[in-house]
Amino acid sequence: MDVYHFKNFEMLDPDVGELRGGHEMIVEGAKIKEISAKPIKVGKAQVVDCGKRTLMPGLIDSHVHVVLSEVVIRNMESIPLTLMTARAADLMRKMLDRGFTSVRDTGGADWGLKEATDNWLLPGPRLFIAGRAIGPTGGHSDGRRRTDQGARCHCCNALSFSMGIADGVSEVRRAVREEMRQGCDQVKIMMSGGVASPYDPLDSLQFSVEEVAAAVEEAHAFGRYVSAHAYTPEAITRAAHAGVRTIEHGNLIDDASAKLMAEKGMFLVANLVTYFEMKKRAAEYGMNSDMLAKNDLVIDGALKSLEICKRHGVPVAYGTDLLGQLQVAQSEEFTIRAQVLAPIDIIRSATTIGAQVVRMVDKLGCLKPGAFADLLLVDGNPLKNLKLLQEEGKHLSMIMKGGRFHKNRLQ
Ligand SMILES: [Zn+2]
Questions:
Q1: CA–centroid distance, residue 106 to ligand 1 (Å)
Q2: Most C-beta atoms within 10 A of its C-beta, which of 50, 150, 155, 404?
Q3: Residue 153 in this model has a pLDDT that exceeds 90
Q4: pLDDT at 126 over 80
């Protein structure tokens, strides 16, 4: 088992919220074994002199789609699973390059990709997977064209691989159970219209109260939870009453729905960057005017949603939800949130709050004995300058996931 002795660093534990010098850390195998303010005596260990850089936990992006490599999701229908996987490998490696050592995939990634990244067959972040995102006929996850009738083959193209349709309580139960059989960490359902789907109005309500309740019941029975795609207060409220744990997007949230989320102990996973990137660049990749019009409906709510959640004490995780060629903007979410939040709040959204969302408190997003050794070494103080967490990992001298170096510029 590899043992590393980290010395000479400024420690940024997001729980503490300020830099602390004078500590040493031992990493043994996949985990942090010891952190001490006194010199640590250890037998055989490789010493890592951090040169006074900032040591912090790896970042968590709580809303990604590693298999959606096209801005226009519909184009995924002509992509075979082999090419889908090859592109996902490239996207995942770049996420790890940016310092995201964990990502929560909200539709698409399966247990095969999770196992491949766990074993470093593909360098990439830890994956928390949903398998297929499930929605009703005509909803956000119905990828068929209007000229398509009936069902589609579910096995041989990237679009069908990442999204599923279920109607009625028994089909929802079956679909949810199927995802859990396939090893999902969370169940993703569609509860309102979406931007990247052409036909469903944004304020449409998707899945009935009974269908959502069935999804929640099945997920809970298996020790899992439900995450819901929802934009409007009505969809958020319906999700909250049915026992959904996380709201994805939530741009149009209002005071009443935020208050309800706080009462129910729910999380918002916001992903503002995707709306700004779509506005800027999605047309050049073929996104049509209907979708861009829906994007305009939600972009105004983006920053407001953060302020409303702050007011009501709803924890907001860092998400991005970028599609295809736009995924390069993953770290820009820091800049956008900085308009209304302090750097430490944004760093917490991508560490401690992300760890709560993926149910890995004290294991991820923190510097503690017993936590996974998912570590970044930053050339400066990100509490003063969030740019250090941007520019494709340029300012990260070291990236470690599970006690293994993905990058080490110190040697
Ligand atoms: Zn998404």
A1: 6
A2: 50
A3: no
A4: yes
What would the DSSP string read from start to end of 124-181?
Answer: --EEE---SEEE-TTSTT----TT--S---SSSSHHHHHEEE--HHHHHHHHHHHHHH
Q: What is the pTM of this model?
A: 0.96
Superfamily of domain 3-57+365-408: Urease, subunit C, domain 1 (2.30.40.10)
| Cβ partners under 8 Å of residue 258, min gap 6 | 308, 309, 311, 312, 314
CA 351 to CA 349: how far, in whole Å? 6
Per-chain mean pLDDT for the chain? 94
- Per-residue model confidence as pLDDT tens digits over 323-339: 999 999 999 999 999 99
Q: Could you give the angle at the alpha carbon of 102 between the alpha carbons of 100 and 108, nearest 5°?
A: 110
Given CA atoms 333, 60, 402, 107 in this order, what sign does their dihedral have? negative
Cα 65 to averaged position of ligand 1 atoms, centre (Å): 6
Distance CA 327, CA 323 (A): 6
For 376, the enclosing helix (H) or strand (E) is: strand 375-378
Centre of ligand 1 from the C-alpha of residue 320, in Å: 8
188 CA to centre of ligand 1 in angstroms: 9
Provide the CATH topology of domain 59-357.
TIM Barrel (3.20.20)
Structure-token match 């679009």, residue found: 159
Using CA atoms, how far residue 81 sits from 135, 145, 153, 202, 400, in Å, is: 22, 20, 13, 30, 29
For ion ligand 1, residues whose CB falls within 5 Å:
106, 321
Start-to-end Cα distance in the chain: 20
Q: Are 19 and 2 in contact (CB under 8 A)?
A: no
Average pLDDT over residues 105-128: 98
Cα 305 to averaged position of ligand 1 atoms, centre (Å): 17
Same-fold call for 3-57+365-408 versus 59-357:
no
Residues contacting 165, CB < 8 A, separation 6+: 134, 135, 136, 137, 139, 141, 142, 151
Question: What ranges do the domains of the chain cover?
Answer: 3-57+365-408, 59-357
